[in-house]
Amino acid sequence: MSFDVENLIARLSGPLNPSDRSAFRHDAETALAAPECWGEGLVYRTVVELWRPYFHPPPDMQHGANQYRRSKLIDAPPIARSNRCDEL
Q: Each residue of 12-26: pLDDT tens digit?
């Protein structure tokens, strides 16, 4: 392979909880050990798909306060879709 798979796995392991890092690393290494023709894109997509269940983003914090706030992306209603062709 023309890129460093170990570096990709290490970089994606960084933001994981310490208790999840070794399990993610094991899953990624096991998946990539299968005898296939691995290109850079396929390796990246495979490792990222394995990474997603292990990643738990930290909650948002209000600036200057020790209270958690809800995400606008979760709480707000969807933005209405406009048809810009009609507006022209």
A: 999 999 999 999 999
Between the ranges 38-47, 55-64, 76-85, where is the mean pLDDT highest?
A: 38-47
Give the predicted TM-score (pTM) of the model. 0.58
Q: Give domain status of residue 18, yes or no.
A: yes
Q: Is residue 81 part of a domain?
A: no
Distances (CA, A) of 22 to 28, 34, 51, 67: 10, 19, 12, 31
Instruction: Tell me how far CA of residue 47 lies from CA of 1, 41, 44, 77, 88, in angstroms.
Output: 15, 10, 5, 33, 44
Tell me if 73 is assigned to some domain: no
